Amino acid sequence: MKMTQDYIGKWAMILGGSSGLGLATAQKLAQEGMNICIVHRSRRSILAAFDTTVEEMKSHNVDVISFNIDAMNPEKREKVISEVVNSVGVSAFKTLVHSVARGNLKPLHDPNGSVLSTNDFTLTLDAMAVSLYDWVSAFAKANLFSPDARVIAFTSEGSHKAWKQYGAVAAAKAALESITRSIALEYAPLGIKANCIQAGVTDTESLRLIPGSEVMKEKSIERNPYGRLTLPEDVANAVYLLCRDEAIWINGAILPVDGGDHIR
Amino acid sequence: MKMTQDYIGKWAMILGGSSGLGLATAQKLAQEGMNICIVHRSRRSILAAFDTTVEEMKSHNVDVISFNIDAMNPEKREKVISEVVNSVGVSAFKTLVHSVARGNLKPLHDPNGSVLSTNDFTLTLDAMAVSLYDWVSAFAKANLFSPDARVIAFTSEGSHKAWKQYGAVAAAKAALESITRSIALEYAPLGIKANCIQAGVTDTESLRLIPGSEVMKEKSIERNPYGRLTLPEDVANAVYLLCRDEAIWINGAILPVDGGDHIR
Amino acid sequence: MKMTQDYIGKWAMILGGSSGLGLATAQKLAQEGMNICIVHRSRRSILAAFDTTVEEMKSHNVDVISFNIDAMNPEKREKVISEVVNSVGVSAFKTLVHSVARGNLKPLHDPNGSVLSTNDFTLTLDAMAVSLYDWVSAFAKANLFSPDARVIAFTSEGSHKAWKQYGAVAAAKAALESITRSIALEYAPLGIKANCIQAGVTDTESLRLIPGSEVMKEKSIERNPYGRLTLPEDVANAVYLLCRDEAIWINGAILPVDGGDHIR
Amino acid sequence: MKMTQDYIGKWAMILGGSSGLGLATAQKLAQEGMNICIVHRSRRSILAAFDTTVEEMKSHNVDVISFNIDAMNPEKREKVISEVVNSVGVSAFKTLVHSVARGNLKPLHDPNGSVLSTNDFTLTLDAMAVSLYDWVSAFAKANLFSPDARVIAFTSEGSHKAWKQYGAVAAAKAALESITRSIALEYAPLGIKANCIQAGVTDTESLRLIPGSEVMKEKSIERNPYGRLTLPEDVANAVYLLCRDEAIWINGAILPVDGGDHIR
């Protein structure tokens, strides 16, 4: 059975791991021998499917634990941390992956319809950007990171572009990239390397919520040198690479994983 | 007397105009013939100096009004808007300049000291980034923008770098640039062009609050091709250029105004 | 008659000024009161139209001289320089604008057709990038620049993107931007500020030579927030702004002038 | 013995592999089981050391062949290609790594000393940028690439910065990045993924040729979050990751491998 030597006995925390990029990442890391902790917010309708996937992961002889809670809630976060410290122990986490997608998709300007409120911006920035800092600092305080740990956040080309109805998420992605750089700098004394993966257009549940996502998908396929969308597995593979020992000197980077979309 | 033909009878709103880049901008635009509305939050100790400067501006035969309020307060904002609509009238504003500098300067990680809280991030993001949208949307709703208006926000190299203790402000600057791009796209139907000026290190009150600002200044002088810091007047001059009719096709840009710091 | 005070008695050198962005720039600067020197390579068929345009420029009470030569030829370059020194005198040039578009448009890879040769790359890099340095250094040696002079080169989004058949020009634009930054740094002791304008898709003769330019134009209109192409006048206006005294602190920048294309 | 399954029986072409990043890359890939072909230009004085390193590589049970020729010479290139086709066979190369460092280090402007000539620029651009295309197109014509092959070129922060005496190399690095993007786009039908690694300041022979390299090293250590220079091994590790099957969707990217230098 193929396993990655670097990974054995290590843990990965996946924030937002019930579907899409987060779940694909959990699956890849489990397959390579990493133990998995998933924090997710899943409706009852998808829980059975999620549980099946967890069982598949465990078939790789790894531990998988999960918490179906609101990752934004500070009390819940503290509870997860303390349970993890008890059951997993300190210095166990090789990686923390941020895949939280909870933003308000509305226009900034629409004379006839609903637009983003100040509060929509604040909530989106908190959920999709500041929460990375909240979890990383809580993990650090609880000594959960192993030496040479990896923090990985998912961003998109939207962080430096403008798309209609994507204004709050775009601002959050830009802030998320900035916070990742600050982590890359300030947590270096703990040995943490922090990077963003800029995923191409991926046909996930989160994408389908964006108005006009069908057109986005068509355009992405058209401009991609390989003529296809990004798959969750593509992104999971890149997380895998960034968690390898050989990635020790990659820090503060934004790595496009899109088959080349971003060069068109 | 030298005046810019494009400007006569037009108004500029300066958010954060009591000192630094904002005040220098007000002075330059007044000198070129634009009427000025300043929203500022000034302590009593600097009010006399501010009033003197206002009188100097008026000597250029322009109107100058000011509001000493908290630009973040929604009720105060609405009050300013309604007073401006009454006294100045609709479609009068050629430009809205965002120079709000109110951020928390603390490290992300410090085993022995105070670090940024979630709330510090939220307040900084609201004050230095989301407030741009709040004011632009309020102006648009009140029909205050003239056709071919300009929205200009001040950013810094810190938006895509990492400096210790600057994490919350860096995230806010990244978000501010993103919001400026969204405005550039979504307010195009109103004829607005929105751009950021990326100012070099400028010896303002805001800079002096950053721990290590003396070192930043020395390094900036050292790396600058012209061997000097950026002056508030340099930035004000760039605002002036972006408000000219000839800048009509500059939209969504981040213009470095730093004598070349950013290329070193 | 409207004239820009900064400009009176100053000269602009326009390299590649027989049509497109270069000619529009010459016209704008002439209209604002600057004397114009154009180096161009014009076929006989367009010379009459060019001569008419020169006469129009002169109607603004400015001097206009032109040289119909190959700007790449070192002997011709020296000849132009020495004639200009004689007729115009030293320290007279406020600006040097590089608008040389002479590149090979072929694919890198085509199993069945002609592809770029090493020599195609070399010639394109020389004509569209290195020539900027050749002219700037020759001007500097001959003391032709006035204090606080401006060097401006035209680039495109293609410098950091990949378009089929545009490979050699893309490399040249990337090199041109780099050379502009080196000029911004190394010629600072002479007071020169060097910047690039990143023009949006403009319907010029050069564009029409690019295979698929019709599709490029359609896509540009579609993604532009204002729904139109960039006009040569838009770019000329930006050159005008960068030549103003107020642009003294803009150095080493790449200024997009595209109505916002680059943010989509 | 640890080997990477993806790699067994595959070949890597290293252009410029006698020392520095190229040699470290050859060593890492050999250690992981890839056969190695090195094109280098080595003086007699270093040949003995080079031969010893080759023997060490072979101890990993891989084939290593080398050509001590001028990689810029088209006839020599054709000779290498035809020998490789004969001895290795078609479709054998998983990767082609471009590590050619042969540039002219002179200022653009120096009233009293030697400066870059047009020819210096041309030679540097040819050696450090266009040569990538020459080799990739020759490899493609000879069917040497395996499916899902990787082209990797080494760039530096200097591609988008300006450093004194580095003007020609900076332009070449910018052109190299552009050519890599064009390869990423136009060679997609052959399954090739092309990327650049932006290495931090590495204490190689090439670096020591840059005037002021001691200061560059000091500053790099100072600004690096981990307080050390980039090692050739760090860069070799990143090449290894980009050659893994999991990197299949990384295409056209510029990956910083510098421990975080670029974020300061």
Automatic annotation (TrEMBL), chains A, B, C, D:
<comment type="similarity">
    <text>Belongs to the short-chain dehydrogenases/reductases (SDR) family.</text>
</comment>
<keyword id="KW-0560">Oxidoreductase</keyword>
<dbReference type="InterPro" id="IPR036291">
    <property type="entry name" value="NAD(P)-bd_dom_sf"/>
</dbReference>
<dbReference type="InterPro" id="IPR002347">
    <property type="entry name" value="SDR_fam"/>
</dbReference>
<dbReference type="Pfam" id="PF13561">
    <property type="entry name" value="adh_short_C2"/>
</dbReference>
<protein>
    <submittedName>
        <fullName>SDR family oxidoreductase</fullName>
    </submittedName>
</protein>
<dbReference type="InterPro" id="IPR051122">
    <property type="entry name" value="SDR_DHRS6-like"/>
</dbReference>
